[in-house]
Amino acid sequence: MSFKKKMSLGILTGALGLTLIGGGTWAAFNDVETTNNYIAAGTLDLVVNPETLFDLSNMKPGDYITKTLTFTNNGSLAIDEILLNIDVEGWEDVLHGHLPDNGENTLEDFLNQFQVVLSSDVYDGFYSLAELSNLSDHKMTVEGEGVAALLPGESFDVTITLQFLEDDTRYPNSRLYEQNKYQGEGATIKLNFEATQMPGEEREND
Fold first, then answer.
1. Is 132 helix (H, G, I), strand (E, B) or coil?
2. What is the CATH number of the domain that holds 157?
3. Which end of the chain is more exposed for a tag (fewer CB within 10 A), N or C?
4. What pLDDT is recorded for position 141?
């Protein structure tokens, strides 16, 4: 074998040896440790009592009813805010041929005949049902920023008064009151209460 061939073979063998050493490195010593960790989501559970506040028929202007609604935090997480919105179902315009305008009105006209007064230790306000129905969310709780409105296991009461307002406006050149147009009309009012969580924060282990 020539010197050139021997030299080439030696270089190839050396390169192959380096490849085996580099690609096949492994350690005989190692150590494995495990930490046991646990995470779980809390619960947000607002309970409202009673489920039905108003079940009224045959109302007349001037009538009112007052009820107490109790909010309880039945979950494990503090509640930041309680939001209110309402749904209205089942209303239809009842016409009255003896009235100058046949008694035509809208749902908003009808809802404006009713005032809602809300009162609690942390909140007071009054609105027409029409105003509440036009709000996507109405904040029921008033607290400092970052302060829980309702801690787990706690409750608070809100007094709610619903009144059919009196309006002595008459039709022009008539003895008839305009509120006559609402006779026979009614609707189902659903009060929807939404509890929200407190903002996320840095946590320490329990």
1. helix
2. 2.60.40
3. C
4. 75
Tokens 């089942």 — which residue?
90
Residue found by looking up tokens 């305009």 in the block = 178
Tokens in use for 178?
Answer: 């305009």
Domain-located, residue 114: yes
Tokens 């904040």, residue? 139
Supply 51's token pair: 């489920």
pLDDT per residue over 17-68, tens digit each?
A: 555 555 556 678 999 999 999 999 999 999 999 988 999 999 999 999 999 9
Greatest Cα-to-Cα distance within the chain, rounded to the nearest angstrom: 132
Report the SS3 class of residue 201.
coil
Q: Sort 113 into a burial class: Cβ within 10 Å, 0-12 / 13-18 / 19+.
A: buried
Please tell me the predicted confidence (pLDDT) of residue 144. 61
The pTM score is 0.78
